[in-house]
Each structure stands twice: as structure tokens, then as C-alpha cells.
């Protein structure tokens, strides 16, 4: 029996059970507005007692913030450093990975990057994700140990991240950009930053 067909009520290790609840929450928060999703709904979807949601995540809001964090934060398994090949090939793989990730949970990703009103906690998570992404990109291009002009480089990566979100929205919402066009935009822009812009900043 595959894992997809196994009953949700089977005994799981704590990390696996927590992940199961989180996956169900990601799906529900993407399908329905935040106020219409209850912890009872999430527990029913995950096949667990509602108390387990409180045990692993706290309140519904705490769980929602964890969903936002999962949607916007680059995980350690991302291909930025693991994928071999030329710089162009690594950038291509990274952009493909990102677009696959967005497509897998497109509705929830839109909710996460859009926030819920003016929510200070969501804004903090988004800002933390951008800061982490800035360091990951500099690591990806071999500038981890660079200190001179580092904050300027990180600011440029954060600006690129804002464009990534905007381009992702254009694609997911079906406005004017196809996936191939978004891929071209993101990969070429990042390559230009790495090959042309970063060296000029460091040289000044």
C-alpha cells in the first residue's frame, strides 16, 4: 500500500504527524478564506483530534503563520547549492524548482505573499524570508565571505525577490505572463545580477 493510500489515522511519528497537519492546513487555507477555516476543519482533513493541532502548533493563527512561513521561506533542500553544472544551469534549475513549488500550492502561495490585511506578524515572516533568501543567493553565487558592499548586494537580492513575487502573481493569476515567460524573466535577471551588476558594485 502506498503512503498516499494509507489511512490518515494510522500511528505516525511526531514529526510526520505534524507535517501531515501542516500539509492539510496549506491546502485548506488556499481553498478558503482564513476566517472560514477552523481547527476542526483542519483536524478533520488530517484525520486527527483537534487537540493535536493545539499540541503541535498552538492556535489557528499560529498554524496559519507556519503555513505562510512554509510558503515563502527557501527550505534547506532547495537546489541552490546542490545542483551541479554551470552558473546558467544552476540558475535554470533554481528557477524551475521555485516555479514548481509555486504551482504545487499556487492559491496558498498567493495568500501567503499577499498577507491577511495589514498583519505585522505576516509582514515579519515575509521580511525574514527575504533576508534569508538574500544570504542563500549570495552563498549560491560564491559570495558568502564577502563583507565589503555586502549590504548593497543583499539589498539588490531583496529587490529581485520583490520582482519574483510580482512575476509569480502575474503567472498564477493568469494575467499576461506564461510560465515560460516568467522563467525567462527570473533566470535572465538573476544571471545579469550575478554576472554584471554584482561585480560592478564590488569594484566601486
Automatic annotation (TrEMBL):
A Pfam family the protein falls into: TetR_N
Source superkingdom: Bacteria
UniProt DNA-binding region: 38-57
Annotated ranges, domain HTH tetR-type: 15-75
Record's keyword terms, sorted: DNA-binding, Transcription, Transcription regulation
The keyword Signal appears for this protein: no
MF terms (GO), sorted A to Z: DNA-binding transcription factor activity; transcription cis-regulatory region binding
Protein's name in the database: Transcriptional regulator, TetR family
Gene source species: Kibdelosporangium aridum
Amino acid at each position: 500500500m502506498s503512503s498516499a493510500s494509507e489511512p490518515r489515522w494510522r500511528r505516525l511519528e511526531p514529526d510526520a504527524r505534524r507535517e501531515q497537519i501542516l500539509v492539510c492546513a496549506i491546502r485548506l487555507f488556499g481553498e478558503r478564506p482564513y476566517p472560514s477555516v477552523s481547527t476542526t476543519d483542519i483536524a478533520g482533513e488530517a484525520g486527527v483530534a483537534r487537540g493535536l493541532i493545539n499540541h503541535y502548533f498552538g492556535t489557528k493563527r499560529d498554524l496559519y503563520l507556519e503555513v505562510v512561513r512554509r510558503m515563502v521561506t527557501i527550505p534547506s533542500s532547495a537546489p541552490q547549492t546542490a545542483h551541479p553544472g554551470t552558473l546558467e544551469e544552476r540558475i535554470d534549475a533554481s528557477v524551475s524548482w521555485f516555479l514548481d513549488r509555486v504551482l504545487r500550492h499556487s492559491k496558498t502561495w498567493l495568500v501567503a505573499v499577499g498577507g491577511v490585511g495589514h498583519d505585522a506578524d505576516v509582514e515579519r515572516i515575509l521580511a525574514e524570508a527575504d533576508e534569508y533568501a538574500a544570504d542563500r543567493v549570495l552563498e549560491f553565487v560564491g559570495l558568502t565571505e564577502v563583507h565589503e558592499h555586502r549590504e548593497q548586494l543583499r539589498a539588490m537580492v531583496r529587490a529581485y525577490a520583490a520582482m519574483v513575487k510580482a512575476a509569480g502573481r502575474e503567472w498564477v493569476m493568469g494575467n499576461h505572463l506564461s510560465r515560460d515567460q516568467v522563467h525567462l524573466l527570473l533566470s535572465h535577471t538573476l544571471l545579469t545580477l550575478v554576472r554584471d551588476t554584482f561585480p560592478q558594485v564590488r569594484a566601486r
